[in-house]
Amino acid sequence: MTGIIDITSPGATGSTGTAGITVLAGGVGGARFVRGLRELLSSGSGGATPITVIANTGDDMWLTGLRVCPDLDSLMYTLGGANDEVRGWGRAGETERVSAELTAYGVGWPWFTLGDLDLSTHIARTSMLRDGLTLTEATARIAERWQPGVTLLPATDDEVETHVEIVDPETGESRPIHFEEWWVRHRAQVPAVRFINRGIERARATDAAASAIADAEVVLLAPSNPVVSIGTIVALPGIAEALRSTAAPVVGVSPIIGGSAVRGMADACLRAIGVETSALAVGEHYGARSAGGIIDGWLVGDEDVASVPHLSAAGIASAAAPLWMTDVAATAAMADAALALASRVAR
Amino acid sequence: MTGIIDITSPGATGSTGTAGITVLAGGVGGARFVRGLRELLSSGSGGATPITVIANTGDDMWLTGLRVCPDLDSLMYTLGGANDEVRGWGRAGETERVSAELTAYGVGWPWFTLGDLDLSTHIARTSMLRDGLTLTEATARIAERWQPGVTLLPATDDEVETHVEIVDPETGESRPIHFEEWWVRHRAQVPAVRFINRGIERARATDAAASAIADAEVVLLAPSNPVVSIGTIVALPGIAEALRSTAAPVVGVSPIIGGSAVRGMADACLRAIGVETSALAVGEHYGARSAGGIIDGWLVGDEDVASVPHLSAAGIASAAAPLWMTDVAATAAMADAALALASRVAR
Q1: Helix B70-79 vs helix B135-146: angle between axes, to the nearest 10 degrees?
Q2: Is A94 helix (H, G, I), strand (E, B) or coil?
Q3: What local confidence, expressed as pLDDT, does residue A15 receive?
């Protein structure tokens, strides 16, 4: 690795933390980014720097009595080497026999794929939750099988589900639907009026997640959806506070390259919150920690190098690098660039 | 059909009921018997006589957070034509992908087969129960898909699970295990000290089940396990009372032929309650309604014709017939013999 941070020496970033690197992440894109980061850190000669991933749980849902956590599972399968690389999500070698049966019974969402292998994760998780385990505990238990090489933490143990207020094309009335219905069934093509973090008034981040930010050497925001992945995590009471107060540098990686969302449909989310689909606008949306925001640094794509001086003017250190996660090596290089930026902004 | 009861004429048996024939049944054996009865009644020229099946729910369990009802499902699959005829239970064309995954997660009972197709039934049922439906309602909803041609009723909507007190071969101490663990895992080879209907003190039969007995033209006890199938149904508050007070004749079909249980392991159950494995002993165990028991008639196998006078002496009308359910036609003939006996004892 070529990173500026000496990851073999705790405290090299000026942090007193010993918890390594903490990443806030959504599902598929976040998983790819973390896989690159893990590759980068494991290829160093100085031993492993621990990685903690705080996962978005806003996409979670109860479906036919089972607790489904899409982002946690995407992270777990991808980091455990069990994901379907061709399709980009879910388990490799998947089948859908149970799902077809459920449709025949008229239960569940016929437009939502529940693979047979994937289903076992939901059954195992639900069983543990019904037995009284927290989602954090159930996640740790389930992850034992996959050995993701990172500590995987749900951002919260409370049920906070993202709903999307849409204007029903048939009735003309606005009504909320679950994020997954909007995302998967409607492909985000029905305009979102706003996003609702249902249940958030009774929720807070887990102590483990807040501590992972407080004690980190570096905090990274993966190039995940700024609204319904990173935004949902940050909205949880306890997260923004931790991001603002941690001694670690906080660096984000832009999910927007050259004015386009790398992983489709983020633009539909940004539109709903009035943020332009650009690396600059998203960086400014997160905002400089020095000005009450949540980031110190913002890594943009080479295509967006022109935004760097504008970001600097907004108090956000910035650098440009190739941000296409075409393979693990390219992603590792990108993670390296993010760590280099973190080193630059470390206080 | 050659039955003596004119099933086209309600009230021909002397009953005022119009609910047709009600059968108390366990799983696999009960399902086969009901299939024969359905065949018999549908082949008549006078239109269909309704059949109501009251199913044992003592084998039910929560397994990895899912409500599994083995006997209801055996009845539903067999009567719906979806059962595995070769194996004798479960769904045809079954696979076990999810089950293998659950084992990899270390949840569930690795010795208990949960087929993928079967699993969808448990998921659908559990989802409905979690939504607040009763088991009776969920069963009706699920059965819509299978069109079993009978009304399928759980004996109770309450959770009463059969546990078996065994003497642990390793510790020498007695402890209760779930019936399915004893039956499937231990193949009933560990001696049962006694059976416990866990939860029965808070349970009762559904009104639908009690009414199906009260209003029937004929009540039949299928040749199911006398202890853990029929016995478990009868133990539910409301069932024995209904059997004793119904105007309908109550006729049982012996599951013991020539001193052997037709469907293995009933002898292990009978031993635990101190009843000999013979058609005579089981008939006497049920007892004559005229003497506080639950049956008027008891159909035994041709092999057990010598028991007929002994049963008569005990106040139980009896007849001998071929009781091997080798195919649907043989089973229909056997059901016909049971109805003929019912006609003879009708008051």
Answers
A1: 30
A2: coil
A3: 37
- Beta strand B218-221 with A66-68: parallel, antiparallel or unpaired? unpaired
Tell me which chain A residues have a C-beta less than 8 angstroms from the C-beta of B126: 64-65
- pLDDT reading at B19 higher than 80: no
Question: How far apart are the C-alpha atoms of B250 and A201, rounded to whole Å?
Answer: 60
Polymer length of chain B: 347
- Residue A111 is given by DSSP the state T
Side-chain-facing half-sphere of A261: CA atoms under 13 Å: 18
Nearest CA-CA distance, residue A61 and chain B, Å: 13
Nearest 5°: phi and psi at B262?
A: -65, -45
Per DSSP (E only), the strands in chain B are: 21-25, 51-55, 61-63, 66-68, 151-154, 161-167, 174-178, 192-198, 218-221, 250-253, 256-257, 260-261, 297-301, 317-321
The reply to whether residue A116 touches residue B130, judged by beta carbons under 8 angstroms, is no
Task: Say how far residue B109 (Cα) sits from the centre of its chain.
Answer: 24
Q: Are the C-beta atoms of A198 and A163 separated by less than 8 Å?
A: yes
Residue of A nearest to B65 (CA): A127
Burial degree of B295 (CB within 10 A; 0-12, 13-18, 19+): buried
From residue A102, alpha-carbon distances to A107, A138, A312, B122, B293 in Å are 6, 25, 53, 10, 44
How high is the mean pLDDT of chain A?
Answer: 92
Q: What confidence tens digit (pLDDT) does each residue in B74-113 have? A: 999 999 999 998 888 899 999 999 999 999 999 988 888 8
* pLDDT per position as a tens digit, A166-194: 998 888 899 999 999 999 999 999 999 99
Tell me the pTM: 0.89
> What domains lie within chain B, and their CATH numbers?
1-57+156-160+199-347 (3.40.50.10680), 61-154 (1.10.8.240), 161-198 (no CATH)
CB contact under 8 A, B102 and A124: yes
Give the span between the Cα atoms of A152 and A133, in whole angstroms: 16
What's the rounded Cα separation, in Å, for the pair B59 and A286?
A: 56
